[in-house]
Amino acid sequence: MRLLHTSDWHLGRSFHRVGMLGAQAEFIGHLVTTVRERDVDAVLVAGDVYDRAVPPLAAVELFDDALHRLADLGVPTVMISGNHDSARRLGVGAGLIGRAGIHLRTEPSACGTPVLLRDASGDVAVYGLPYLEPALVKDEFALDKPGHEAVLAAAMDRVRADLATRAPGTRSVVLAHAFVTGGEASDSERDITVGGVASVPAGVFDGVDYVALGHLHGCQTLTDRVRYSGSPLAYSFSEAEHRKSMWLVDLDADGAVTAERVDCPVPRAPARIRGRLDDLLADPALARHEEAWIEATLTDPVRPHDPMARLTERFPHALSLVFEPERTPDEPRVSYSRRLADRSDQEIAEDFVTHVRGAGPDAAERAVLRDAFDAVRADRTLREATP
């Protein structure tokens, strides 16, 4: 069976205030063409269909168009909700839409109920595990102290229990939206840390033939059977070096996996450049970036006059300026934003306590901070999910 694995469409998202709807429509067209021309048997969409819980109308219209085009091909599609989606909104009409071969899996209670596909070699059970916010699904899985690993382990127990009732030789596929240990993050994913932990081990998915992951925006292979497709478009400059693609996965009669990357259209490549402004404007090696979206880090010791206007004379699609002046060794000043880069909310709060009090928080105080951040995150997810 041939599967096309994609995720993280983020319909409705912009790139540094540049609308991406046209590029997203081009990707949908590319997806449909790939399904038709590469003899795909099923499409897997591993969450974050939309960029926010209440998407703009144009994004909903594009999603509607995608559903109709996929249904017209007669190729089954299995789709889960991600942490950016409102599971309830995305799942509206799921039963009716399922009759057209578009299977929306947004309810945690249905984790152990597969979409059954069939080819000449027998059945393939496809299980959709939507993004599981631990605080909101702990009762569903009867957990006293929820965390990402605990809820995913409980969901996978249901998958394995159902799979054990299937005919011998039934192959299995799981869609999940999670941060799996070993994956490389970018700047454009929303933090999902709970209890100080964001990631789960890949071993939680043991026992199935293929795991189609969503959430991280870079295409990645964690094991031969556990992969991220990544987002089809770049949504931050941290993705400038990404090769955007989908996975074309062949599942043979014994459940063995072979996979091929299918490149996605690139509407305009993002690029990061760095140096003094005059050097950036004169460097012939940067000619290849003149039509790219640009993030320029200026290292001039003194901020140049009108830098963006000058930069856009050569790079008309420059979108972001960062200032990091060159300094001598005795001037190790680091910008506030740079000090915060790659630090979690928890770490920033703990640093603030240290700064104000002169001593960092103890274990009990760190636990209070952690619980507070978890509660805020759960409340935000609940509010986004509530119509």
From TrEMBL:
Gene3D superfamilies: 3.60.21.10. Residues 1-218 form the Calcineurin-like phosphoesterase domain. Residues 271-355 form the Nuclease SbcCD subunit D C-terminal domain. It holds the Pfam family SbcD_C. Transmembrane segments: none annotated. Keywords: DNA recombination, DNA replication, Endonuclease, Exonuclease, Hydrolase, Nuclease. GO terms for molecular function: 3'-5' exonuclease activity; endonuclease activity. GO terms for biological process: DNA recombination; DNA replication. Signal peptide: none annotated. NCBIfam families: sbcd. SbcCD cleaves DNA hairpin structures. These structures can inhibit DNA replication and are intermediates in certain DNA recombination reactions. The complex acts as a 3'->5' double strand exonuclease that can open hairpins. It also has a 5' single-strand endonuclease activity. Heterodimer of SbcC and SbcD. Belongs to the SbcD family. This is Nuclease SbcCD subunit D.
